[in-house]
Amino acid sequence: MSFIMQTVLLALGVFACMVSGQGLDSRLEKGGARVLAMKTIGNRMAVEDKDLTVLYNFYNVGDGIATDIRVESPDTFIDWPLKNGLSTGFQIPFIQPGENVTHALIYQLGKVGKTNTLNATDFTYKNGKKLVLSKTSAPGPVKVQSNAEYERLYTLQMRPWLLYGACSALIVVLPYLGFQSSSSKAKRA
Ligand SMILES: *[C@@H]1O[C@H](CO)[C@@H](O)[C@H](O)[C@H]1NC(C)=O
Ligand SMILES: *[C@@H]1O[C@H](CO)[C@@H](O)[C@H](O)[C@H]1NC(C)=O
């Protein structure tokens, strides 16, 4: 095979890939709405008798509007009643392409040591007229900690920050003190 022939074939190959790539893109464009849902726990820790915030983040990664997003049976626990939100679920009217919408449910936690598992939750949305069924991610088990444990971990986490705060304060204050003493010396002179 001649060099020119090889070059032509290579160029044709690259061109074919570009064209099929474009074809793929336009196929994706016709996909419309596509909603991913991430369920996460908003709290740093689950603490006895405090709130547990469960966040549902819906992200429309498609290129069409998603409408009528519904969660009809969120988690319910015998011992952790819903404080904010309904056990019959919630609905979001629409999500534009590329947009996120977050919905929070708040539960009232009970006794120390109790563990409940947050599973994936079914949700539905409409892509044009089509009803789509999907599932959120699953945060997993949540164990209630004592208030004392919370305080201990919190101060442990705070310590580096306090140190950082003290150091940055020194960095700000030291030159200022130096300036003051030199300017007072200057005034005296
Ligand atoms: C999550 O799934 C587990 C195992 O099927 C179940 O025991 C638990 O009750 C579920 N959690 C909720 C909140 O429904
Ligand atoms: C929506 O959420 C996703 C995932 O958390 C993130 O990557 C993206 O940047 C967010 N988009 C906007 C517009 O906030």
TrEMBL record:
GO CC annotation terms, alphabetical: endoplasmic reticulum
Pfam families reported in the protein's UniProt record: TRAP_beta
Transmembrane segments: 161-179
Record carries keyword Signal: yes
Signal peptide bounds: 1-21
Keywords: Membrane, Signal, Transmembrane, Transmembrane helix
Protein name: Translocon-associated protein subunit beta
Organism this protein belongs to: Sphaeroforma arctica JP610
Taxonomic path: Eukaryota, Ichthyosporea, Ichthyophonida, Sphaeroforma
